[in-house]
Write a structure and sequence with these properties.
Chain lengths: 410, 156
C-alpha cells in the first residue's frame, strides 16, 4: 500500500510553519529529517515523567529510565535485524560510531602499511578517521573509483582488496544517491580476508535494513536522519568483535571496577558508552523506529522510488540540457538524493533564490570534497526527499528554479 | 525576509558576469595565496605583486558563488595601485561594513581612519549583512589577500 503523504505530513508539526510567507518545502532530509509528533512526545514524556540517571539508581525513577534506554536498544536491534540487543552501541552520531571503530578496532589491529579500502563517494565521516590513522599509524588508504554514471567502478576490486584489512563503504551516497552493492562488496572483502564496515547513514532511514543480509561486520548510522533526535547514533557490530575491542572513551558507566592501579571494563555494549548516555535521545530514537515501522520500510522505499522517478522526469523534461542531475538515472538504483547543477549558476545562489519560495535545498560540497573533485565541480545543489515529501514539493522546486534566471542569466 | 534585490544588486551581478582582474600572475615575482570556505567548498586564489609597499598588480582565480566572485573582482579593482597601508584601511572599512569585529591577527591601519575610506563599488556588498550566511562569501577574498600581502612583505 502506498504511503498516504497527507497523513504523514500531519504527523510532523513543523510542516505547519511558513517560510517567508510560503509553505515549507523541505528538501534537505539527507542533512537531517524532521521529527514526527510521537518522537517529540517521547522525548518530552521522558523528561516529564521519568528523567533520572541510568544503570545505578535503586529508586523507581531510575529503574524506569534504565528500562527505557534498554528498550530503545531493543527496538533498534529489531529494526536492523540484529540477533542481540548487546550488539547495539549508542554513540553521538554516525561519525562517532565510525571513529569508535577506527580508534578501538583500528588502533589495535592496524599497523604500518595495512590497507584500508574506501570509495571516492564517501562522506568525510568515512574518510577523515582513516586519514588520521594513516598519519598516526601509517595505514595505507586505498580508494575504489566511481564511474561517470555514479556507480562504483569495481574493475580493480580484487587488486584493491589484496592484503586489505578493512573495506568501509557508504551504503547510499549522500551526494549521488547511488545504492552500492553492499553484499557483493562484503563477500569480496571477506574473501580477501578483510572486515566490512557499512556507513548506513543514508540507507537505514530509507530502506529496510538487515545487518546480516548486508554481510557486514560493522554498521554505523545516525538517529537524526531517520526521524529521531540529534545526538544519538548507532554502531552495530558482530559480538565477537565488540568483545575483543578495547574501550573507546574512559569514565563512568563503562567500568566494572576502578582502583588506584587501574580499571576493568563493563560488559558489551556499555564498555563503549562512557559517561551518562543520551537517554532522552535514545528514547526518541526508539519512538522513531516505532514510527517508521508503523509506516513500513518497504512502503517508505516504494514511495521514494516513485517520487525520485517523478523528480527526475519533471526536472529533466522542464529544463533539459539546462540541468545536470548527477548519479544513477534509474530510480531503483538510487535513493531520493538529487544533486544538480542548473545553467552554470553557483549552487549557493540557486539555494538562495529557492529559499525565497520556501524551498530548502543544500548547496555546497556535502562533506564529500574528494567526490566533488571527481565530479569536476566545487559544489552542487542537493534536493533530498523523505516520507513527508510529495509531488507538490518537486513541482515547487521546479517552479522556483526558474526564478534564478532573472538574476544570473543575461 | 530581506529582498533578494538587496543581495544581488546590479553592480554585483556586473562584477560577477564580467570579473575584473581574473587570471594569474607569475610567481615570483608575485605571491599566491589560497583561501577556502570550509562550509561550502568555495575557493579563491589571489596573486599579488607588491613592490616598495605598493600593490602593483593583483589577479584572482578559483570557484565560488556570485557574492564571492564579485567581492574578489571589486576588491582587486579597489586595491590595485594602492599602498599596503591603504589596503589595511580598506580591509578595516570593509570588515566594519560587514559588521565584523576587528580581527586581532589583522594589522591595524598605521595611519588614517578607516571610517574615512570611500569603498566605492564595494558599498554594494552592504546588503550581504542582511543574509548572515553569505558574509563569509564576501570576506573570503579579503582574508586571502591579507595573507598574500603578508607573505609578499615577509619575502621581500
Amino acid at each position: 500500500m502506498a504511503l498516504d503523504t497527507a497523513a504523514v505530513r500531519a504527523d510532523f508539526p513543523i510542516m505547519c510553519r511558513e517560510v517567508h510567507g510560503r509553505r515549507l518545502v523541505y528538501l534537505d532530509s539527507a542533512a537531517t529529517s524532521h521529527k514526527p509528533r510521537p518522537v517529540i512526545d517521547a522525548v518530552t514524556d521522558y523528561y516529564e515523567r521519568f528523567n533520572s540517571n541510568v544503570h545505578r539508581g535503586s529508586y523507581q525513577l531510575a529503574v524506569e529510565a534504565t528500562e527505557a534506554l534498554e528498550e530503545a536498544r531493543r527496538k533498534v536491534a529489531n529494526f536492523i535485524g540484529a540477533d542481540q540487543d548487546s550488539e547495539i552501541v549508542f554513540a553521538k552520531n554516525a561519525t562517532e560510531a565510525i571513529n569508535l571503530v577506527a580508534r578501538t578496532w583500528g588502533r589495535t589491529n592496524l599497523g604500518p602499511g595495512d590497507p584500508v579500502v574506501i570509495t571516492e563517494l564517501e562522506h568525510h565521516a568515512n574518510i577523515v578517521p582513516w586519514h588520521m590513522l594513516a598519519a598516526e599509524q601509517g595505514i595505507e588508504l586505498r580508494w575504489i573509483p566511481i564511474r561517470s554514471d555514479g556507480h562504483l567502478d569495481l574493475t580493480d576490486l580484487d587488486r584493491l582488496l589484496d592484503g586489505a584489512r578493512l573495506l568501509s563503504v557508504a551504503a547510499v551516497s549522500n551526494v549521488l544517491g547511488t545504492i552500492n552493492p553492499i553484499r557483493q562488496l562484503a563477500d569480496a572483502a571477506h574473501d580477501a580476508g578483510a572486515l566490512m564496515m557499512v556507513d548506513a547513514s543514508q540507507y537505514t532511514p530509507h530502506l529496510p535494513t538487515d545487518v546480516k543480509e548486508m554481510g557486514a561486520d560493522f554498521v554505523a548510522f545516525t538517529g537524526h536522519k531517520m526521524c529521531g533526535p540529534t545526538g544519538i547514533g548507532v554502531l552495530w557490530a558482530k559480538p565477537e568483535l565488540l568483545e575483543a575491542m578495547p574501550p573507546f572513551l574512559g569514565g563512568g558507566e563503562m567500568i566494572l571496577n576502578v582502583t588506584k592501579e587501574g580499571f576493568s571494563t563493563a560488559a558489551v555494549p556499555w564498555k563503549f558508552e562512557a559517561g551518562t548516555p543520551p537517554i532522552a535521545e535514545a528514547v526518541g530514537l526508539g519512538a522513531a523506529v516505532d514510527y517508521l515501522t508503523g509506516l513500513g520500510m518497504e512502503q517508505v522505499r516504494e514511495h521514494e522510488v516513485a517520487l525520485t522517478g517523478y523528480a527526475l522526469r519533471t526536472l529533466n523534461q522542464r529544463y533539459g540540457d539546462d540541468i545536470t542531475i548527477h548519479g544513477p538515472t534509474e530510480p531503483a538504483e538510487r535513493g531520493g538524493v538529487l544533486s544538480f547543477e542548473y545553467k552554470g549558476i553557483h549552487p549557493h545562489d540557486v539555494a538562495q533564490v529557492l529559499d525565497r519560495s520556501g524551498v530548502c535545498v543544500r548547496a555546497g560540497h556535502h562533506c564529500a570534497k574528494p567526490l566533488m573533485r571527481v565530479l569536476g565541480c566545487s559544489a552542487t545543489s542537493r534536493a533530498s526527499m523523505y516520507v513527508y515529501n510529495d509531488e507538490s514539493d518537486v513541482d515547487a522546486l521546479a517552479d522556483a528554479l526558474a526564478d534564478a534566471d532573472a538574476f544570473f542569466i543575461e | 525576509m530581506p529582498d533578494l534585490e538587496d543581495l544581488y544588486r546590479e553592480i554585483i551581478l556586473d562584477h560577477y558576469r564580467n570579473p575584473r582582474n581574473r587570471g594569474e600572475l607569475d610567481t615570483p615575482p608575485a605571491v599566491r595565496a589560497e583561501g577556502f570556505n570550509p562550509l561550502c567548498g568555495d575557493e579563491v586564489i589571489i596573486y599579488v605583486q607588491v613592490a616598495d609597499g605598493v600593490i602593483e598588480d593583483i589577479k584572482f582565480g578559483g570557484q565560488g558563488c556570485s557574492i564571492s566572485q564579485a567581492s574578489s573582482s571589486m576588491m582587486s579593482a579597489a586595491v590595485k595601485g594602492r599602498t599596503v597601508e591603504e589596503l589595511q584601511q580598506f580591509n578595516h572599512a570593509f570588515r566594519s561594513m560587514m559588521s565584523i569585529e576587528p580581527d586581532p591577527d589583522d594589522p591595524a591601519p598605521t595611519n588614517g581612519n578607516s571610517a574615512d575610506v570611500k569603498l566605492g563599488d564595494l558599498e554594494a556588498l552592504k546588503g550581504v549583512v542582511k543574509f548572515p550566511v553569505r558574509i563569509k562569501c564576501a570576506t573570503l577574498s579579503w582574508h586571502t589577500l591579507t595573507q598574500a600581502v603578508e607573505e609578499a612583505q615577509a619575502t621581500s
